[in-house]
Amino acid sequence: MNSLLPRSFYEQYDTITLAQKLLGCDLISQQSAGQTAGIIVETEAYLTNDPACHAYRKKTTRNAAMFGPAGTVYVYLIYGLYHCLNVVSAAEGLGEAVLIRAIEPTEGIELMEQRRINQTKSEKTPVFKPEQLCNGPAKLVQALGISLSDHNGTCLVSGSLSINSASLVDFEMVATTRIGLTQGVDLPYRFYIKGNRFVSRK
DNA sequence: TTCCGGATTACCT
DNA sequence: GGTAATCCGGAAA
Question: Which nucleotide is nearest to A59 (CA to C1')?
Fold first, then answer.
């Protein structure tokens, strides 16, 4: 059985390598409502010298968590209405992170559905196929019950959000360009599990 | 102090 | 395929 990744796991790799190593690992959210979990199938790397990175310019209240030690959780608000989840990487004070873009739901799927339904602003109740639950950075944040106030700056080694060692190891990885950016668009810093249907975009 | 645009998603045609 | 929803950090459009 797989086990909780220790601090040393996050410290021992550079950001790009960590983004690749996180593929296949289990992302687990433990809350009073129940446990939800999924396999990480898609990630993106954000480096400190990369204009698309939030820490590219300087440390602010918003991006402060990115400058914490490797294994810190960085959550931020995007487009004023969604949140994204990052794993802080590299040396403390550097400001690099791995964006978790998609997971394959494995546990607590009903709870995930409920959270997604509750957080979707719509007149009628949406119906989600399993692959629509977590196939995007803001979607998995909703499904796992992650919030800015509860999780930003927390620790993956000792908090309610954690990552276990890879449960999926036998796969092909694709490296390609990142999604939704206007800067650094040509850098091949997006990684996903080839053929996995829970990836946000092929 | 003001204004622009973003590591997105859902719903419309 | 196009766009509305909706907040805030950073540049000064």
Answer: C9
Instruction: Estimate in Å the CA A80 to C1' C13 gap, whole number.
Output: 21
How many CA atoms within 13 Å lie on the side-chain side of A115?
23
Taking only the tens of pLDDT, chain A with its 202 residues reads 689 999 999 999 999 999 999 999 999 999 999 999 999 999 999 999 999 999 999 899 999 999 999 999 999 999 999 999 999 999 999 999 999 999 999 999 999 999 999 999 887 788 899 999 999 999 999 999 999 999 999 999 999 999 999 999 999 999 999 999 999 999 999 999 999 999 998 7
Residue with tokens 């995930």: A112
Specify the DSSP element, H or E, that contains A89: strand A82-89
Assigned CATH class of A7-193: alpha beta
**Domain residue spans in chain A?**
7-193
Cβ of A99 less than 7 A from strand B: yes
Give, in Å, how far the C1' of B11 lies from the CA of A20. 34
**Considering the entire predicted model, what is its pTM?**
0.96
- Give the nucleotide with minimal C1' distance to the Cα of A133: B9
Nearest nucleotide to A44 (CA to C1') is: B7
Contact flag, residue A190 CB and nucleic strand B, below 7 A = no
Residues 6+ apart with CB under 8 A from A137: A78, A82, A84, A85, A99, A100, A101, A102, A200
